Amino acid sequence: MRILLVEDEQRLSDALVYILNKHNILVDVASDGIAGQDMAETDIYDVIVLDRMLPGKEGIDILRCLRANRMTTPIIFLTAKDAVESRVEGLEAGADDYLVKPFSTEEFIARVRALGRRSTNKFIGDQLRIASLTFDPLRCEVICGNTLIKLTLREAQLLELFMRNYGQVLTREQILERVWGLESNVEMNSVDIYIYYLRKKLIQDGGVTIHTIRGVGYCLKEEQHASKG
């Protein structure tokens, strides 16, 4: 899962990035409202964490713009504005959740993960399941049939992206942005290399495979078995 954190308080931002990364959640950060809206409009994030009081453009205005543009990405407000009127205003503007500072880091992580689950119906608890493939993003483990396979963090991030977008073709550019980030200097062939690594590990009978769509990108879908007879 990749989230966008729009927060101008540097110490809090650094702390949240550390906590989220510790839970295998990728984070891109914007420290002002204008940059935050620009990044949000790329539509590559599973969840957006948005402060209300930001330099450049306030969070409530960013939220209204995103919803006016029909963006459905789950958004949680993270703010010191704790009045009932402020909460109602945020939720009615289109926020999916509202968390007041100071807050428990455990509750923050739980709320972010809950919002992330809304983008897919393939979650079973904290796991993703398709066909005979069961993936635990917290442990970086996948079960193919009856075989438990350990993944590296990058492989796990890649598999999560494919499973959340099961049956959809993802371009190499989209994969690079979602897994490595907008500011990454990683070469495009890293996508092909890590897909090769992941395919080798998923060779067990999980019922799905990563297909190459020539000239476009990749797609996770069910394996096609030749009929017998």
Automatic annotation (TrEMBL):
What are the residue boundaries of the Response regulatory domain, all occurrences included?
2-116
Q: Which residues bind DNA?
A: 125-222
| InterPro entries to which the protein is assigned, alphabetical | CheY-like_superfamily, OmpR/PhoB-type_DNA-bd, Sig_transdc_resp-reg_C-effctor, Sig_transdc_resp-reg_receiver, WalR-like, WH-like_DNA-bd_sf
Q: Which organism is it from?
A: Fontibacillus panacisegetis
- List GO terms (cellular component aspect): cytosol; protein-DNA complex
Q: Which residues are reported to carry the modification 4-aspartylphosphate?
A: D51
Question: What's one Pfam family here?
Answer: Response_reg
**UniProt name for this protein:** DNA-binding response regulator, OmpR family, contains REC and winged-helix (WHTH) domain
Q: What's one GO BP annotation on this UniProt entry? A: regulation of DNA-templated transcription
Where in the numbering of this chain does the OmpR/PhoB-type domain appear? 125-222
Does DNA-binding appear among the keywords?
Answer: yes
Give UniProt keywords alphabetically: DNA-binding, Phosphoprotein, Transcription, Transcription regulation, Two-component regulatory system
Query: What terms describe the molecular function in GO for this protein?
Result: phosphorelay response regulator activity; transcription cis-regulatory region binding
